[in-house]
Amino acid sequence: MRTQVLGAGVVRRATTLADGRDLFYYDDPGTALGAERAVDARTLAPRPDTATMRLDVLTGDWITVAANRQHRVMMPSADADPLAPQTPGNPSEVPSRYDVAVFENRSPAFGPALAEAVGAAPTAADAPRGLDDLDAPGLGRTRTAVGRCEVVCFSPEPAGSFGTQTVTRARTVIEAWADRTEALSALPGIQQVFPFENRGAEIGVTLPHPHGQIYAYPYVTPRTTRTLDMIDRTAPDLFARILDTEQRSERVVLRGEHWTAFVPFAARWPLEVHLMPHRHVPDLAATTDAERDELAPLYLRLLRGVDALYDTPTPYIAAWHQAPVRVGRDSVRLHLQLTSPRRAADRLKYLAGSEAAMWAWAAEVTPEQGAERLRDAIARTDAVDGVSA
Length: 389
Prior knowledge:
Elements: E1 2-5, E2 11-16, E3 22-27, E4 52-56, E5 61-65, E6 100-104, H1 131-135, E7 142-144, E8 148-153, H2 167-185, E9 192-199, E10 211-217, H3 222-233, H4 238-247, E11 252-255, E12 259-262, E13 271-277, H5 289-307, E14 316-321, E15 335-340, E16 342-344, E17 347-348, H6 353-358, H7 367-385
């Protein structure tokens, strides 16, 4: 097992699963866990072939067709949790007790290009040939969906979310995100790396275990492509201008030395908040220890405020937008976009005709109202937790 000490005293231990997939343990500083980890002794079926991408010629979007994902685990009982540490009765994905664990997804939307290990998917026969190739139009165009999908387990506990973790554990997860961003960005053919957390059945979560994912794409995603286009049409320092404008507005909900959280001027969702670093950094791997140290408690305060809006936990998507690997590094700034479809205690916003079909949005909650409600919720949780603003 390969071991390395990372920032904040986090220790990474690298190993492999029975079918050759990578597994990384990230130990908290001062962890009670020992250095030894169990070997994955399962007998597993061969890994599925890498999925195929098809070009939507009307939009230029690449659509991944990954039939293997149709059969992934759906809301298992606690004694069959695939993200829990293995037990004699539960041959899960993680052989040992852990603090934070990251491993390659068994049912990925994007898979390996090369047969790098025993049981790995076969060599991709039709991998993308670069950004120019992916940008070319044409009917019936396909490419192999080269890339990587990883699962990030925030805790060995069977239930919870990022927001239910301690500051120490949150800092370990942030270190893991940064470490994996750097490693995945260096893989051949990867164009963008995306860490995210889906939380809540309303979002479509299939496992209640506290976890997130990281996707490494073979293309620049459509959302980021539109952002790059807007930067070209406005100014290379567009993100700095946005942050300056928002910091002078009534939409700020939290502000630290290195980060500011705000409801954006043109928020689409009933609950939408962005979290942005004060200096330009393209991705989590480029953040400093000081920025990561502040992010852990600040992000937890934000998430606990989000949960305090209603009597039950708030469903959300927490999306860490990072600059592409090869373009836009000096203009696309790392930032979190947290969105929730919940517009009232018992009501959700559904994307129906206009939004789903035409991408034309209508918001029911003003961003200023949303910011005020979220500030009040954060203040309540701060008071309970004894946090001074």
